[in-house]
Write a structure and sequence with these properties.
With 78 residues, the chain is mainly beta. The protein is 12% helix and 31% strand. It has one helix and five strands; from the N terminus they run H-E-E-E-E-E.
């Protein structure tokens, strides 16, 4: 069996540190794969609760957001 080197330049964050960092951005982008297999991204206004380890946002108008696999990214640009 081959060994895969872990050569990431960015240190791994725990959930709380990641949410605290996400909360420091003025905007958030939600990204997911739709039912037909296409990637979808939309600007959202997320509420970040780092202490409670949660991030919540309303579904963008006209889009169905899955509940099992969504990426939430912080952004300085909307």
């Amino acid at each position: 069996m081959a060994t895969i080197a872990d050569d990431r330049n960015t240190p791994e964050l725990d959930a709380r540190a990641g949410l605290e960092k996400l909360a420091s951005y003025p905007f958030q982008i939600a990204t997911w794969v739709d039912a037909d297999g296409y990637p979808v991204s939309a600007a959202v206004a997320a509420t970040i609760d780092a202490a409670g380890l949660t991030a919540t946002f309303a579904s963008p108008a006209g889009l169905m957001v899955p509940t099992d696999a969504v990426s939430l990214t912080g952004s300085h640009i909307r």
